[in-house]
Amino acid sequence: MTLLTERRWRFGALLAAGAGAVTIAAGCGGGADASGLSLGEYRDQAQAICRRSKQTAENIQVVTVEDLERLAEAQQRDVAAFEALDPPEELAESHDEFVMVLGGLSGLTDEARERITPGEAPRQVFSDLDPRERELSQQADALAGDLDLPDCAAASDGADEMPESDVQTYLRDVGAASSALIAFGEGLQAVPSPEGLDDSVPVLLGELDDFDAAIERMAGYRLADPELEDQRSCLVESADPVSDALRRFTRAAQSGDVEEVTDLLPEVTRALQDFQAAANGGC
In this structure, which CATH number among 1.20.1440, 3.40.190, 1.10.238, 1.10.760 belongs to the domain 164-279? Predict the structure, then answer.
């Protein structure tokens, strides 16, 4: 299973930003007249959907590709459930825009799953999608405000503030990241022949998963010491190219693509040098 790591991947919060529970929406359609739900009914049901969605998001801890698939399926069901609400006429336009934005966010989850499943580095995928996710999330928050649905807004700004961690935790995470890279290198060197690489690929990719996990933990906090905080920030920033290049290098070697392996060597070397430079104190 591919480990999925993400410092603040907010797809879990997207459920809390307005996707909903099927059981609630299923009973909404029968009693409404042609003008839709009343203002109070709409907001009560939408708020209930969002509160339940927040609980769903908390229950799905995205750690593996299988977890990401579960999240994608839940989002698809929940967007459809929210769409099934029949809003009052004065809120119909904003409601439709809200559902469209939620569909876009759900689509990003699908895109992440489709890219990570074949072996792309999770952190790189999340980094690529992050600008679009943030833009859509901001739109969802604004529309939740227009609809007067506070429970459908994403986490508050205070929830996004990184907690402060201690030096011992940081050193442990740095050690775990370094150990994973060393184990990857040793594992690659231990392969007796290209033919034997197939058996080693899951182990090698597992070491990169461990590397990603350690970096992800480091990306989730800050340090009080300015010098160590600069180092932590530089290590996190330089880690994505390392994981991505080594994964592509491993896949190319596995497939016997000598030309691609040769082309990737300078990129791998440069990424590792940048990571080493970050460890020595500079980005």
Answer: 1.20.1440
